[in-house]
Specification:
mainly alpha, Serine Threonine Protein Phosphatase 5, Tetratricopeptide repeat, 22 helices
């Protein structure tokens, strides 16, 4: 299993509140009875919203809508309250009604886009942010959110265009650099990502996710020592940051500092004892140091946490076989690994080696035939099959001679 570091992605979701028009005492005196009733209901709704009593706010916005069903502002504000309660479908409906009543109003499409993003309607989300940008081409957050949505849709080049525009409008916009770095990393432009994270760090030296993601980009460029420096900075800023010790441990594996890596994985497991990958990676370091029993224990723990990862069974079975342990247990692990992943020639080859150690040459030959079907040029498989065939023939002759 290829080592993988963990990174952060931030989806910008800033809902915009709407400000009511101020009514002077003279104007209030000229209000009709219906208008006064609507205003009183909206005042209660506003107070409730500010007190985070969103259910009550919705109740009074609804009453105000019954009095005046043509007020776009009321639908928009009820949509905000619904959004904050996680009622995204209802929020979309209210924002849509507000748009119907006032299609040129700023931030209606923007807020509807945010609500739709929580419903995973990403194509429609892009359309809403685009419409918002048509109304207000200076809306930095609309470019940010549209770019972030395009990252989710794997339209990385288009996402970068949006982040570029956001930076053009606000050259110190932290999220624009951060998310542009993510888009570049997905495109394999690790150096470009590092530039963006470095720019962000120059703007905000305590932006912890920037150090974390810059460390990941450096890791993929095999700049392991630099990656360790960034992960160490993450730990300095927050010792409990998600998988920081794990990431640093992976980078130390790249530097072949196995004992140091083990210390980091151990620290990671103290913080997050359910991190099965940390057990797996710690076991890899232990195998390199020939601490086979410790490695087997760690692979077992990883399997207990995540019993559906074929690489864990493969690794444990390989170590058991390599350390002259219980070959039946090793064979059982490889069989389970193949059951979970039947398209990996290496797993069949390893099980064939175990079968040969157990002097079970016929099943070894079967596995090696599968390997050679997948990889006809596998020299090790050819040699081992010749050995297995010769050994099986000799065993049969010996049996007949009895």
């Amino acid at each position: 299993m290829k080592s993988k570091v963990f990174t952060s992605i931030i989806v910008l979701s800033l809902m915009v509140s709407f400000t009511s028009c101020f009514c002077s005492p003279c104007y209030a005196a000229r209000l009709t009875r219906k208008q006064k009733k609507e205003r009183a209901l909206l005042d209660v709704a506003k107070t409730s919203f500010e007190d985070k009593q969103y259910d009550t706010a919705i109740e009074y916005y609804t009453k105000a809508i019954r009095v005046n069903p043509d007020n776009a502002d009321t639908y928009a504000k009820r949509g905000n309250a619904e959004y904050l309660l996680g009622k995204y479908k209802e929020a979309v409906t209210d924002y849509s009604k507000a748009i119907e009543l006032d299609p040129k109003r700023e931030n209606l499409y923007y807020n509807r886009g945010i609500a739709k993003s929580n419903l995973n309607d990403y194509e429609e989300v892009v359309e809403d942010y685009t419409k918002e940008i048509e109304i207000n081409p200076e809306n930095v957050n609309a470019y940010l959110n549209r770019g972030t949505t395009k990252v989710i849709l794997k339209e990385y080049d288009k996402a970068i265009d949006d982040f570029n525009k956001a930076i053009e409008l606000d050259e110190k916009n932290e999220l624009a650099y951060f998310n542009r770095g993510i888009a570049k990393r997905y495109l394999g432009d690790y150096n470009g990502a590092i530039e963006d994270y470095s720019k962000l760090i120059s703007i905000n030296p305590e932006y912890i996710e920037a150090y974390n993601n810059r460390g990941a980009a450096k890791f993929y460029l095999k700049k392991y020592a630099e990656a360790v420096e960034d992960y160490s900075k993450v730990i300095d800023l927050d010792k409990n940051f998600n998988r920081a010790y794990y990431n640093r441990g992976i980078a130390k594996l790249g530097l072949k500092k196995y004992e140091d890596a083990i210390l980091d994985f151990t620290k990671e497991l103290e913080i997050n004892p359910k991190n099965d990958v940390a057990y797996y990676e710690r076991a890899l370091a232990e195998v390199t140091l020939e601490h086979y029993n410790s490695a087997i224990e760690d692979y077992t723990k990883a399997i207990e946490i995540n019993g559906n990862n074929p690489d864990y069974y493969y690794a444990r079975g390989t170590v058991i076989s390599k350390s002259d342990g219980d070959l039946k247990a090793a064979e059982k692990d490889l069989t389970k690994a193949i059951e979970l992943d039947s398209n990996d020639a290496e797993k069949y080859l390893t099980r064939a080696i175990i079968y040969c150690k157990m002097e079970l040459y016929l099943p070894a030959i079967d596995d090696l035939n599968i390997v050679l079907k997948m990889d006809p040029d596998n020299t090790q498989a050819h040699d081992l099959r010749s050995y297995a065939i010769t050994s099986q023939t000799a065993a049969e002759k010996k049996e007949k001679a009895k």
